[in-house]
Amino acid sequence: MSALPPFAAPPGSFLEAAAKAGLEFEPSDLERIGRWLGLLEAANRRMNLTRITDPESAWHRHVLDSLSLLPILHSITCTSLLDLGSGGGAPGLPLAITCPGVAVGLVDSVGKKARFLEACASELALHNVRVLNGRAEDLAADGAPERAAWDVVCARAVGRLPVLLELSVPFLVEGGLLLAIKGAQASVEIEESRAALHALHARVIDTIATPTGTIVVVEKARKTPRKYPRKAGEPARNPLAG
Ligand code: SAH
User: Is the shortest distance between the CB of 32 and ligand 1 below 6 Å?
Assistant: First the structure.
């Protein structure tokens, strides 16, 4: 009998932390998440997707961090979720696995990352996943089909909050939420975001401490002015401030 691949089963420390955080999922979800981690590890040998390579850290840093959004998603009506700058698939793929009734979009501007995400969705038979290969600035531009089309946008490690706000808020329906996975610097980033929040008609409605970080919850109050997002590269080069 061959040994199970090292990512297949979650370590006990993951199960304990997940139970403590009140996270609920099916055993078959964990099996599919383990297969995703295996695909991520294999692809990471060919391209730079993650610096986390040992299984225990991967379950904590990728899976627990991603699933920390579940309680919020379960507390609202969310039929569509966009993971902006999905890279290797966190947090979008674990959420697509655990929320099969939600239409999940995975955005990445890098073609080979988008192809990796496509391969994961097909290998794991995730019929609720659609991969969008492009820059947020173009996909959410005035008149583009994805603009104002998503209930929730989530993102991890895609720039500081003022930049992320300009890239993400235009995708949201009015009243939609951005769930930004942040670290210890969350409150500093919120302070830096006053001008961006004002310009984009959005407001921070909550910050939630999780076992792995801080989730900043932003609500889009009204329609985004047509001039945002500015052209590709501009939000990061010259963040909304002042
Ligand atoms: N969310 C993943 C990856 C973070 S790295 C994780 O936490 O592991 C940031 C990713 O965002 C990269 O894959 C990069 O290609 C993508 N990205 C950065 N700016 C982008 C933009 N403007 N539009 C679309 N994708 C972008």
Answer: no
